[in-house]
Amino acid sequence: ILCLAAAAAALDFRYHHTEELEQYLRGVHAAHPSLTHLHSIGRSVEGRDLWVLVLGRFPTHHKIGIPEFKYVANMHGDETVGREILLHLIDFLVSSYGRDPVITRLLNNTRIHIMPTMNPDGFEATKVPDCYYTRGRYNRNGEDLNRNFPDAFENNSASIQPETRAVMDWIKNETFVLSANLHGGALVASYTFDNGNPVTGSLKGYSRSPDDDVFIHLAKTYSSNHASMHKGTGCDSRQTFPEGITNGYSWYQLEGGMQDYNYVWGQCFEITLELSCCKYPPADQLEKFWRDNKVALIEYIKQVHLGVKGQVTDKNGNPIPNAIVEAKGRAHVCPYRTNEQGEYFLLLLPGTYVINATVPGFKSMLKTVEIPDNTGNFSALKQDFSFPEVSDQIRSRVVSCPKTPLYQELARASAAVKPTIHILVLMTTMLVIFK
């Protein structure tokens, strides 16, 4: 244990291969057993563990009212900056807990999951680092993991990989509220949707989600707190990003991306952070990358406390799982539902909203809420719903959303879509039928 703790204390600015990364994570957990929980969510094609370190006051399990946050890096094995800065983020969090009041409150009120590498095989396969491209981008089966998830707009024919399946199960088993996916090769914060159709605005070169305002805020939160991302200059004269952000589809269309999957099927808002123009830069630049991203990484985590949260219960105070809870005017095609504890979390910007709670077979309950900016208080507004007509028999109902393209029906699901779009929806549906 002493050796592991010493290894944890000796984190330096260089690239850590699989054994060193595992040793470091084990050392952190050994040195901070009450603040951290280390586990593997699965294995890569070559059998390497997909390690996740969880940090918080209750690291081993979900606690009612405390939101779940995650960072995932190194999804493309040759995009390496995120992998290393997440190790330094871990080091910063555990060393600041109990000393820095902001970090202490953050960890006391947030359960933070950190996966330094989603593609360890690709990282180890990158023998000659390159700024632009290597075969290590892909997993051992030659698949791009950020094209490997179910897609909300079209059938994704890619075979689901072990790394992808592990993350999908992870998302299913946790109540993630907010996430970011760390990449390299550009300098920008990209947000949902990555794919689209005429219903979401693809004909105008922008694919808009029902929560577009929240996604823009999230992307700007990161870019504005980054040392240079907010300048929007990109990596060359051909590529500029105003304020350092972009809608994913506006940048380039992507099928089977992880951020869209999180949002549609995981009820988790995720953005993609491109952190370096060079995919695999020299190790002597890592310290600067950490300095450039340190504040942004922390400020982004705080956004998990935006909006409103609460529980839905029956007449006896028992939690009701699978109740639909959404803000009026921004319904999702895969309705956002309560977890096993009857909890919901909705990320919303400050303002007035009508929250609609629905238990199938019973009359919906509407409540108007005035949502403040509570990120500085590390707690979203609390609004519970109690259904006096509902007995605990409703708890046996299990609802899942199909893994098929869904967004051809966005017009009927979201009030954000204009009535004139219905013709486009009808045309799209007819084309699908004829095909």
From TrEMBL:
One Gene Ontology biological process: protein processing
GO molecular function per UniProt: metallocarboxypeptidase activity; zinc ion binding
List of catalytic residues: E274 (proton donor/acceptor)
Sequence ranges assigned to domain Peptidase M14 in this UniProt record: 14-304
InterPro entries documented for this protein: CarboxyPept-like_regulatory, CARBOXYPEPT_ZN_1, CPM_N, Peptidase_M14, Peptidase_M14_domain
GO annotation, cellular component aspect: extracellular space
Chloroplast listed as a keyword: no
SUPFAM superfamilies registered for this protein in UniProt: Carboxypeptidase regulatory domain-like, Zn-dependent exopeptidases
Key words of the record: Carboxypeptidase, Glycoprotein, Hydrolase, Protease
Lineage top rank: taxon: Eukaryota
Record family assignment: Belongs to the peptidase M14 family.
Protein name (Swiss-Prot/TrEMBL): CBPM Carboxypeptidase
Organism, as annotated: Thryothorus ludovicianus
Name of the encoding gene: Cpm
